[in-house]
Structure formats: C-alpha cells, structure tokens
Amino acid sequence: MGVMKMFHAGEVIYGPYFPENVEIKRCELLEDFYIIEAIGRETHQFYELMLEKEKIAELKRLKEDASRQSVQGEDVQRYLQYLMLRHEMMYSRTRALGNKKLLPLPHQIEAVYGRMLQVPQIRFLLADDPGAGKTIMAGMLIKELKARYSIERILILTPPLVVKQWQEEMMEKFHEHFSIMNRHVVKEYSGKNPFVDHRQCLASMYWAAREDVKPLIQEADFDLIIVDEAHKMAAYTQGTVKKRTTRTKLYQLGESILRKAPHCLLLTATPHKGDMENFRHLMRLIDEDVFANIKGNESLREKTNPFMIRRLKESMKNFDGTPLFPKRTTKTIQYTLTEEELALYNAVTDYVREHFNREIRNGSHSTAFAMMLLQRRLSSSLEAILLSLKRRYKRLVHLYKQTEQERRKYVNKINQIEWDDYLEEDSEQQEQLEKQIVQAVDSIDPAELKKEIIVLKKLIEQAEHLRLYAVEKKYQELEKTLFGTNGLLQQNEKILIFTEYADTLNYLEKKLLERVPKVAKIVGSFSIEERRRQVELFRNECSIMLATDAGGESINLQFCNQMINYDIPWNPNKLEQRMGRIHRVGQKNEVFVFNLVAQNTREGTVMTRLLEKMERMKEDLGADLVYNFIGEVIEEKFESLANLMQEAILNRERLDEVIANMEKVLSEEHRKLLQLMQEERLAEDPIDLSVLKREQNDLMVKRVPVRAYADLATYILKKKKVRVYESNDGKVKRVERLPKFIRDHLPELSQYQGESFRFTGFREYETEEVALLTGDHPIFRLSMDLMKKEIEKHDWERYLVTYDVPEPLMVEVHQVRIVDGTGKELENHFIHLAKRENGEIVVLHPYWLFAGSFSDQVLALNDYTSNDHIVHVIKHSSFIRDQIQVKRQKQLDKILAFLEKSFHQQYQDLLEKIDHYQKENIDNRNSALINQMNARIIDLEMKKEERLTLIQRQKNISMKPPKKMLSLQLVPSGRSTRVMAVDYKEIVETYEKANGRMNVKMFDCLGLVDFYSERFNGEERYIILTNDCNYMPFEQHLEDLSDILSKVYIYVVQDGQIVEERQMDRIGIKLV
Questions:
Q1: Residues 773-803: pLDDT tens digits?
Q2: Whole-angstrom Cα distance, residue 901 to residue 868?
Q3: Which sign does the torsion angle of CA 199, 203, 206, 210 carry?
Q4: pTM given for the model
Q5: Under 8 Å CB-to-CB from 236, ≥6 apart: which residues?
C-alpha cells in the first residue's frame, strides 16, 4: 500500500468533491475516513466532508498539478488587474462619472449614491419636480443593483403615454433592453407567461391592472419594481365612480406586487398636492408597517421621512452651480374669427349639440363622443373639420344605401370598440381610436340618416365656400407670428409647431412650403428611424418643424427654444408633454411658448381663462409644473378638461357660470399649493455641490483606466485561442467569429449571426461600429467569466518581477471584506502595501498596476509573510469599515427613528381604543372587541421586534479577516522617473499654500496623479511629481489623463525642493 496522502492547513486543492478550488482548514483521519474542512477560494464558502481513505487520492494539490503552465509576467499582472476590475464593477461609484451618452447631474448622483444605495432594501418615493430626469435616476439605480448582483428581474410600470419612451431611454442611455408586454405578447405566448420568460419587462400600468394580467405579474417574482407617475396608483379616494374603479384596480395591483418585491422605486412629480390621504396610500405601498395609520396632522413631508426623496426645481443645479432649467415664458396669441368663420363655427356647434344631446338620451355614448371629436377638430383648422364632415357624410351615405342588417352589424362593430381607457392611452392609440369612433352613428332609421345627410351636406358647402374665398384667420395669425416684421423667422429662430391632427398638419405643411423651401414633420405613423431623420433635418437644414401629439411623444429637441401650439389639447398634461420636448435638461436658452386661441368661441373663452390662470399660478409658485398639476386638479373635480369644455359648448347660457366655477376651484388649489411650497422650501436639504464635485474629481483619479477593459478582454480571448485582429496601431481590436464555446456561454449572444465584433479601449476610436469596451459590454462580461476560470489554474504566491517603479519594493495585495449583520457583503476592497528598503511601509494606488508591463521573466519565490504588513492591513480595513458605517448609520438611524415613532403612535391608538371599550364594557358586551385589540397589540409587538432587530443587524458592520492575494518583489527597470508622493507631502502642501491654493490632497503612491489642490474659486489642479526635468508621461498614461489633462501640472523636485512646474497643455504633447 502506497504512502497515505494527507493535506495540511493552508494548502489549496481541487477535485470532484468540491465545486471550486478550496483552501484546507483541517484534515484529520477518523477510522477509515478523512474529515476535511475547507474554504472556497472564490466564494469563501465553508465546506465539510467525510471521505473514504481511498477517495482522497482524487483530490490534487494545485501546486503539484503537472499540467500547469509556468506563469509569465503578463499572467501575474492580468490576474491583479482582473481583481481590480471586478472590484470596480461591483463596488465602485465610477458609473457616476457617466459616459458619452449620459452625464449624471449632481442631484441625480446624490439620490442614487447618497441615498438609495446606502440602505439595504431600496424602497423610495422619488418625488422631485418634473424635469429632474427620474428615468435617468431609475436607470442609474438599475445599473448599480445589477452590478452588485442584487437584482435580476425588473418590472417597470408606466402610463401608456411613455412606455415606448422608457424603452428607448433605457436602451440608449443604459444599454438595458426591456421587453414591452402587452396583449399581443400575451396572445403570442398562448398559455405561457411572458413575464416569467423575460427578465426585464415594461408595461402600461392600466393594462397591468386588468384582472387577467395581474396574476401573470404576481407569478413572476420581480426583484425590483419601478412605477412611473405612481400617484395615479394611489389616488382612488375621490373622483367619479368610473375613475374610482380604475384607480382602485391600480391600487390593488400595487399592493399585490410591491409588498412582495424586495426593492421598489415609485416615481411621481406631484407627490401630494396637499392631499394627505392620497400621499399616505402611496407611502403605504412602500412600507405598510410604518404608514399603517399616521394621524392626519402628522406631516409626512417632514425631513425625517427616510423613504422619500424630493428636491425642488430651483435647487437643482449643474456642477458649476448654474441652474439646470432655463426660464420658460408663455404667451397667448388671441385672434378673432371673421363673421363667415363664426357662422360656420356656430352651425357646426349647433349640429354637434343637437346630436350630442340626442345620443346621450339614447345611451349611444360612442356617437356622443364622436360629436365632441368633431367639435375639437373644429377649433383646430378649417381643413380638419371639413375633412371630418366629408368622411362622415360619405360613411352615412354608404350606410343609407345598405340593408338594415348590414347597418345593424356596423353599429354593433362600433359599439364593440373599447374606448373606456381612452384618456389613459397614449396619443398614438388615441389617434387610432378617434379614427374609428368619429364615424359612429346612433340611429339606423333611414329617415333619421337622411335628415343628418342633408344637414352635413349644407355644412360641407358652407366650409368649402369659406376655404375657396379666404385664408383662415388663424393661419394669417400664424404667418404674422412667423414672417411678420418682428416675426420669429426674421430673428433666425427654429420653431416647433404642434397640432393635434394630421389633417391640420398637412394643411400647414402645404401652406408653409409656399413660403419656405423645407419643413420637417413628425406624425404618429412614422417609424423611429424616420423620426430621427426628421429631427436631423430640423437640426441642420430647416427652421420649422411640424408635429402632432402622437408624433412628438418621444422626441427631444433641446436645440430649439420656440414653440407654437396651433391648437390646444383638452388636456393640460398633454400641453406639458409638448413643452417637455424643448424645455428639458440640456436646453441652454429661455424657452418661449405661443398659444393660438380664438377669442370669440366658447372653447376659446374657457381656454384663455385657463391659460391666464396657469400663468399667474406659475409666476407665484415659480414652478413650471402647474400644467400637470392643473390637469390633476381638473381631473379630480370635473373628471377632465374635456368634460369642462363639453359643458361650455352644450350650455350656452351657463358659460360664465362654468368659467367662474373653474376659476374658484383653481384659486382654492392655488392657495393650498402656495402654503405647501413655503413649507417645503423650509424643509429642503440642500445638496453640497463642492463636496460632490470633489468626490467626482476623486473618482476620476481612482477609477480603473478605461483602456484596461479592452486589454484584459484581448488577453483572455487570445489565451482561449480566439483570433483577435488589430488595426490603428493596435488601438482597435476585431474578433471575426466567436467560437461556439463562447456563444453558448452568453445569453445575450443567442441572436448572434456570426458578425464580427470591433472594440477599443481608446475613446477617440469609439464610433457607432467600434464599441468602447466597458463593464457592461457582453464581450467584457464574458472575458471576466473566462478569467475567473483561468486564474483557478494557479496558486498565486510570491514572485520576483522587473517593473517601472522608482525603487525596489516588496508588495503585498490584501483583500478586505466588510459585511453587515445579515451577512450581506457591503465592500470588497484591495489594499496594496509596499515595503521600502528602509523598512517603511507605504500604500500604493491601484493605478500602479496599469502603468506599464511586468517583465516576461518572473521568478517564483518562497512565500513569507511579514507581520508589518498585517498590522497596516488591519488599520486600513478599520478605516474603510468606519467610512461605510458612517454613511449607512445616517440613513438607517433615520429609518429607525421613523419606525419607532410610527409604532409608538399605533400603540397609543390601540391603548386608547381598549380604554374606551373597557369604560363602556357593561355586561361584558365589549369583551370580544377588547380581546381583539389585545391580540392586535401582541401582533404589533412582534412586528416591531422583527423590524427593529433587522435594522440593528443591518447597522452592525464588521470586517472579515483580511486575505493575502499575492506578494511581489519588484525590481526597478530604471525607466521610471516618478517619485513616492508620501516623501513630499509637507513640501507640496507648503508650496501650494504659498501660492494661494488650498484643499491639498495627497493620493496613494504611484497613482494617476500624486496631489490635488484647488484655488478659492474652485479651479482644480492635479499634480504629478518627478525628479526629471524632461519628464513626459508615456502614451497610455496620457490617455488615462485625458479627462483632466488641461488641469495637470508637472512638478520637478530636486533635493527636497520644487524647482520647476509646468502645465501639461495639449500643445506641449503634440510637439514632443
């Protein structure tokens, strides 16, 4: 019998009994078995096994694995870089720096990194003023949680109006693909559940609330649910009966899915409008324990509410302190209909009124609706009403000639149309519905049809006559605004003109082309590509763009700041939607909006008063959100603006009364809102821009260089025998065909047709075809997975390497892990400690690993661990732990205080009730009630205990014992002329102060730069120290500095003095 194999603590082994390489902690013989205890190298999981003696032969030491290739310098360096990249992707804030597509703003960074990511369970109401970029913050959060592996399955619910927009933004800005769920998708899946099948779903909240859809969502357990315009979910206490039912359905949907999901983010721009009830319902979706029954007088809006993030528009700034939003000015341009136009207006209105009233009596709602559509088209343009009258005439004549049976069939078909949700649909759906409904009829009696046909014929003649002999007054007004002596086009402006109807748009296009060579236009039927083409046309070649609501829904035109509403939708939210096309983050100029309104029509009168009222409120409140806000108020009190208009049109006599009533309601709301804004301004937590800016500057220096992603990918792909071709001096890489083993590995490549991938690590080479490789790219994610397998082949120990360092260093890299009491890992950090020849230990900046290449030849040395390093590691770890603790403590203490207060309140309520019942407990008739209350008290105690224990666990943060990854003996190559920053700390500080610069900060040694300082005006300076007068950073170093290059200075030091400083301006580099 051969020699028995026995493993010692500390040895790394692998074999069929473990899912990964493990480090032995204990190995003992017991009878015929070995007891083995070990820790996984990758997962840190604890394993214990009993193995028969003979089976132990199947386990092998990593060290003596003959098939191991010898390690080259590059392998060691890439292993360390892989560790840095892994940390960067999971734990770093680097994404806050943004990229080509997205530059996060201070308030967005503050919300995501300062608040949301500081708590273990993300449950927030994000209630910033409109325009803050809530979609962006949601996207940033999704990215961070996915990187930390906290979530896999995501659902976003939005109003139908913006479903498509969300999908585009998520793709364009975050490269996240969301599948839109709707009834067609469910149909296609016949019986299978599409919500389970897709990881990232997007759906209309109204559709999701349907009885047949809700169970599908419940079945698909989502990790994160985001609800846009969440106040719609909670507002079910007032309003008309029909509205109440949809809203209640929405709330039930919310309750059933949000309580199960670990993370949720509710977005709203009108958080309460003073309606505490609605607000409380909203908060209960976030946390029902806390918001179970807060007394009405308790202000939920106070600063202490840890579940809400709300910033006012005026406090949102850019990093340089300038306001985010330009001013917005609205002007109403009134015109007067000519006598002939007025005669037509009255004639059509009479026809509409008569039929509307008749249809309401007959219960034919779709026809009544059709009549109101005609009325709306009447105030859009002569063209729009004429075409509608003609279409209706043609349809009626056709019906008149049909048999009774055919007519019945038609009426039934129209009545089948589902238009209950008309108001909640997006403009494109609305347009489709209107096309069908505008043809609705209520009577199929030939005599009635004939009467209506005669009336229509007269109206058409009247309208045609008008069109033939005069140019519409409204169009003349538009021409004057555009081409008049001080017209907008004289001033070289770009102008966006909105209308509700394609018919009006076509008329305007035809007329305007008589005056200008080109006009851009966007309508609902255009594809995304066509829309983009038109936007570019408008940007580069012409000064007018025409758009319908359905067309304009997802376009962004920050480069245009003048807008004309040729007609005004009967829905203030749509008006805000229109303005949002040009009045948004990125708009540099004041925005002007012109509303064309007829002075002498009923709708015109109501509209003028409404617009005046809104303007006044806007000036008072200094906020642009009045349109959405007024939309909400009108919905609550009158069901909709359309209803208000209807009333004005149908009741001639009562026009003044209708207007007075509207003004009264708005004035009351106005007063309430003013008071609210006062309270909120006082309660606001201002964002400290200078601190945030410093943190961003820090990130610039700390982050792993952009080029490292492409370098690591190239290395591992080549190692796996994938052919990587290079062009542009090796700056652009191309992978022709991905081998099958790679394709099978990545779900996102399932559609891969064999096309080649091109990527780069250099920003200047990034194009549509060449991807700048980042942490999110499928190729990089694949590379990380391949690296993980690759590094398991080696037992990384201690090596001697030649490298570009200024002096010999003995480096150890340690991993430090910080966890909370629930076992969740909060930080996973690497510390690079270098021992100098004089015995001093300094911390190296991780950048040292990217500043050159290790020599190919490496020598494996015997391992030894000096205790000097360990002492430093522990000191450093405690420092990191304390930093995390402070940030987290602040947020958790807020929640704790809030919870305790809420439980106390509920407790008091129950005690009062018991007290009350006991006082009146004659003949024990209240005993059942009293027992019930006592049971509830016990429940409450348990719930409180559970919640508080959890928070205590989350607050308690501890370190795991540090783990050494590798040691290196570095031998200088003689090429480096940098110095160790730590030797010059006092010298630089003194020098900077003497030159009027402060906030001097030293970075760890051999970083991207050595020091940072700023002048009193915030002007930054990054400093690199060298002892060589001709020092020039090498090419990659320059690339890594590119974001801050203009602020980089080289200080030359000799004999402990700074003898020269020079600015690294671009010109200098070009000459070298």
A1: 888 887 888 889 889 888 887 778 888 999 9
A2: 49
A3: negative
A4: 0.77
A5: 244, 247, 248, 250, 251, 281
